[in-house]
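Quick one, probably user error.
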């Protein structure tokens, strides 16, 4: 059977295995506001995990706010480096995110510039595709254009199931699209409590 597209609501048919990266629905999944219990198909099973956590065999898109954590003196740098040590092979980024990293690194001197260059050499860099631009257009009403491009890559690239970011609006909209949001050093689901 062909898998349901990302964002499709509902549970798998009875007896079917849970979707990749998902889990079988529980009674807790069926509890909605005010404690009312609904049928298993009325509430989706989210794919997100807490900040800094990650399920195995998932690829993540890293935006400039995440890549900047490689720089000396960056907030949450130690937590990011610990997480990246295990997941760097699963990270995907874009020229836009690398440009953001270089812009942040430039005033910090030669060493920071070297770190930014090294990160660009180590990570897989994907180009913006027509699918990326279409996905970005769909969220451009709630996100600034460049941030929408980051989300567009995460939504359109077939191998990406999550996003590494410390940007609040991007994290919030990514979570709404059922992407795993990873922000090592930040509390779990920080984007839900912010603002």
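Nope, works fine. Designed sequence:
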């Amino acid at each position: 059977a062909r898998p349901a597209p990302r964002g499709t609501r509902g549970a798998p048919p009875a007896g079917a295995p849970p979707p990749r990266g998902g889990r079988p629905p529980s009674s807790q999944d069926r509890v909605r506001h005010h404690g009312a219990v609904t049928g298993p198909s009325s509430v989706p099973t989210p794919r997100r995990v807490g900040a800094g956590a990650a399920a195995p065999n998932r690829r993540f898109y890293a935006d400039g706010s995440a890549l900047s954590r490689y720089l000396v003196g960056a907030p949450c740098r130690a937590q990011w480096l610990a997480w990246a040590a295990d997941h760097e092979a699963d990270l995907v980024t874009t020229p836009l995110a690398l440009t953001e990293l270089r812009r942040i690194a430039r005033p910090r001197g030669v060493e920071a510039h070297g770190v930014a260059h090294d990160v660009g050499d180590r990570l897989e860099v994907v180009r913006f595709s027509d699918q990326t631009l279409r996905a970005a257009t769909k969220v451009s009403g709630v996100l600034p254009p460049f941030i929408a491009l980051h989300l567009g890559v995460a939504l359109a690239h077939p191998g990406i199931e999550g996003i590494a970011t410390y940007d609040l609006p991007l994290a919030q909209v990514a979570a709404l699209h059922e992407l795993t949001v990873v922000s090592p050093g930040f509390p779990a689901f920080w984007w839900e409590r912010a603002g």
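DSSP finds eight helices and five strands in the chain.
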